[in-house]
Amino acid sequence: GRKASEHTNAMPLWRACKLQTYFTAKGLIDYFLVEEDPSLPLTGGALAGSGLAMASTSQEEGKLFKDLKADIIQASRDLDKEAEIVQDVEASRADRVPWLVHTGFPTHLQGLRDTEIMSSYALPRSGDDDDDDDGGGGGGDGGDDDDGEEEGGAVDTDIDLRRILAAVESTLRDAYKLCSDKSPDRKMTQQRAKRLSNFR
Q1: DSSP codes joined into one string, 43-105
Q2: How far apart are the C-alpha atoms of 163 and 172, rounded to whole Å?
Q3: Whole domain around residue 77: which residue ranges?
Q4: Are 114 and 161 contained in the same domain?
Q5: Sign, Cα dihedral of 123, 128, 130, 136
Q6: What is the rounded distance in angstroms from the CA atom of residue 65 to the CA atom of residue 71?
Q7: Which residues of 18-43 are buried (b: 16+ CB within 10 A; e: fewer)?
Q8: Number of domains in the chain
Q9: pLDDT digit string (tens) for the chain, length 200 residues
Q10: Residues 65, 115: one domain?
């Protein structure tokens, strides 16, 4: 290499230039050369003209960033819509659980939206059921006996359904306690989980 003392006007080792900095990593800064437009003379008027050029450039950059932001928002919406639909198991790269494949869940859920799947098992709100029962009971006078018998049968069915759901919920909560990592009663080890996932 050459020494800085060798720098002369006749034979310069470096020249004056404008640099821009950017951070590459924590505590590290890199520089890159900012090229000046040779067509602009270095006079006061030219500096004012370059200010106008910079203003138009910043407007163009603002428009570009606005368009990029709109594209990103649209892409995230598209991803959300795509994520709502259950994809085919064969097309996904996710880890497959053999017993889910053998039971046929993927084929039944393929192409359905999340809302369609949730509506298949979601219970109606209890307030909606009560309002319907109250509104239907005060109907016409001619068919009170028939309506009463049908409502009584529906109430019995609702009671049975609620008992079944309570039992299922209790069973699932017990199973969750045995499988959850956060539960003090956890019985599911990694080895047992592997055995269950290989169950056919």
Answers
A1: SHHHHHHHHHHHHHHHHHHHHHHHHHHHHHHHHHHHHHHHHHBPPPTTT--SPP-HHHHHHTH
A2: 14
A3: 60-122
A4: no
A5: negative
A6: 10
A7: eeeeeeeeeeeeeeeeeeeeeeeeee
A8: 2
A9: 788 888 888 888 888 888 888 777 777 888 878 877 666 555 544 444 445 455 566 788 888 889 999 999 999 898 888 877 766 656 554 555 666 666 676 777 777 887 888 887 777 776 544 444 444 444 444 444 444 445 556 667 788 888 899 998 888 888 777 777 677 777 777 777 777 777 65
A10: yes
Same domain, 107 and 159: no
Q: Supply the pTM of this predicted model.
A: 0.27
Look at residues 76, 106, 122 and tell me which one is the last residue of a structural domain. 122
Decide if 197 contacts 97 (C-beta within 8 A).
yes
Backbone phi, then psi, for 115, in 5-degree steps?
A: -65, -35
